[in-house]
């Protein structure tokens, strides 16, 4: 992989506010649905956590529930002023997750009610106090924005600074939630550094899917005495299907929309000294006009400053699809770029006007393999390889699904 092979090695597009399991606790009532906790037969037993009188509780604390001989019907959490806190029970019934991080240095009262098959109920109450504001925090980000429409390969990307160490990833991953409508299975997978974790389904999202994401990491212990800086969340939509396929052998890009080829574009890829990366990438950023400046990182005599139109970022290292009027004569014939996918001005504008952030781009046949993590790369792995990056065991039924990469 060539550093800043074509474009600038600019800062990443801003990540905002974040994503865990396939179902997301969200703001709502404290009532527990009929599908909630159903326990084995026997006398009704119920216990809750945190323990009564416990102090210094993390702001991410959940109301733990252990029930047998019945089912939980209600969980209620109130602050010291009696104000109700919204939340939702986890699918496995193990705990109730507040809809947002709790307030530092405050006392809360939780009340949990369960009922047995004869209608006899039991209620347990606990009072606890949260910790003071954490002194050391882990910065977080979510590359998903409210009310935006994304391409079918848009991964959910949650970012951590500093990265999360392996021993701490499972606890963090349990606080990342995704809901998809229509429902589609998916899994999380960490990059080696722990600075990012991706969520994707086995195959591209269905067009029209609605996504609701929550990274419930505000006040969550993240290791090394650090705590997540804040909860992050977004609701977004997946648009139509548009897939770009680039073949170095033919020097062509095939654009497939809703299963039909709509245009074939001549391209010029990276010259032998600056090969383009082969692999499946995702459009991460779009700029109608920008400046590529490689003077700081290029070898002496090879840097340049160039005005660019219709740039679509594919990698963090600086590979883009963009307008290249200077290489039109080479497009479709030979590779002359610094690693980018060069197209003509008219084709660049046409493509720029059609694409969405999250549209997939697959390049094949070049002399360089895409490095995992150089961009949003979860689709460059097979599904079976992707799920190996989860910090929590992925059910066999999900791990063995047919995937797309």
From TrEMBL:
Residues annotated as catalytic: 322 (proton donor/acceptor), 340 (nucleophile)
- Which keywords appear in this protein's UniProt record, sorted alphabetically? Acyltransferase, Cell shape, Cell wall biogenesis/degradation, Peptidoglycan synthesis, Transferase
Q: Which SUPFAM superfamilies match?
A: L,D-transpeptidase catalytic domain-like
For the region Disordered, give the residue spans.
1-36
- Recite the lineage of the species: Bacteria, Bacillati, Actinomycetota, Actinomycetes, Micromonosporales
Q: Cite the PROSITE patterns for this sequence.
A: LD_TPASE (PS52029)
Question: Where in the sequence does UniProt note compositional bias of the Low complexity kind?
Answer: 21-36
Task: List the pathway annotation.
Answer: Cell wall biogenesis; peptidoglycan biosynthesis
What Gene3D superfamilies does its record include?
2.60.40.3710, 2.60.40.3780, L,D-transpeptidase catalytic domain-like
Q: What is this protein called?
A: L,D-TPase catalytic domain-containing protein
L,D-TPase catalytic domain location is: 242-364
Q: Name one Pfam family in it.
A: YkuD
List the source organism.
Winogradskya humida
């Amino acid at each position: 992989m060539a550093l800043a092979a074509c474009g600038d090695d600019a800062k990443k597009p801003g990540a905002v506010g974040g994503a865990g399991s396939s179902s997301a606790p969200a703001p709502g009532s404290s009532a527990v649905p009929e599908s909630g906790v159903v326990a084995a037969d026997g006398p009704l037993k119920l216990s809750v956590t945190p323990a009564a009188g416990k102090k210094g509780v993390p702001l991410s604390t959940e109301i733990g529930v252990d029930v047998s001989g019945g089912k939980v019907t209600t969980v209620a959490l109130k602050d010291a002023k009696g104000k109700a806190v919204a939340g939702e029970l986890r699918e496995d019934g193990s705990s109730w997750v507040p809809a947002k991080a709790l307030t530092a240095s405050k006392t809360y009262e939780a009340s949990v009610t369960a009922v047995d098959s004869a209608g006899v109920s039991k209620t347990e109450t606990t009072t606890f106090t949260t910790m003071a504001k954490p002194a050391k925090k882990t910065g977080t980000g979510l590359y998903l924005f409210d009310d935006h429409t994304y391409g079918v390969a848009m991964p959910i990307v949650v970012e951590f600074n500093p990265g999360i160490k392996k021993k701490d990833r499972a606890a963090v991953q349990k606080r990342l939630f995704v809901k998809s409508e229509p429902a589609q299975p998916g899994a999380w997978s960490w990059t080696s550094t722990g600075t990012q974790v991706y969520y994707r389904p086995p195959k591209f999202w269905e067009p029209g899917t609605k996504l609701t994401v929550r990274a419930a990491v505000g006040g969550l212990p993240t290791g090394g005495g650090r705590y997540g800086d804040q909860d992050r969340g977004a609701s977004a939509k997946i648009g139509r299907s548009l897939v770009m396929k680039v073949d170095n052998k033919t020097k062509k890009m095939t654009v497939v929309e809703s299963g039909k080829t709509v245009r074939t574009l001549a391209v010029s890829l990276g010259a032998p000294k600056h090969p383009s990366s082969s692999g499946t990438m995702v459009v991460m950023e779009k700029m109608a006009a920008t400046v590529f400046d490689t003077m700081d990182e290029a070898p002496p005599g090879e840097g340049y400053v160039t005005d660019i139109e219709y740039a679509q970022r594919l990698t963090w290292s600086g590979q883009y699809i963009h307008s290249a009027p200077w290489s039109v004569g080479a497009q479709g014939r030979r590779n002359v770029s610094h690693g980018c996918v060069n197209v003509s001005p008219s084709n660049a504008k046409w493509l720029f006007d059609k694409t969405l952030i999250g549209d997939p781009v697959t390049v094949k046949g070049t002399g360089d393999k895409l490095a995992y993590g150089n961009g949003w790369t979860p689709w460059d792995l097979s599904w079976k390889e992707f799920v190996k990056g989860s910090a929590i065991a992925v059910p066999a039924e999900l791990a063995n699904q047919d995937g797309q990469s």
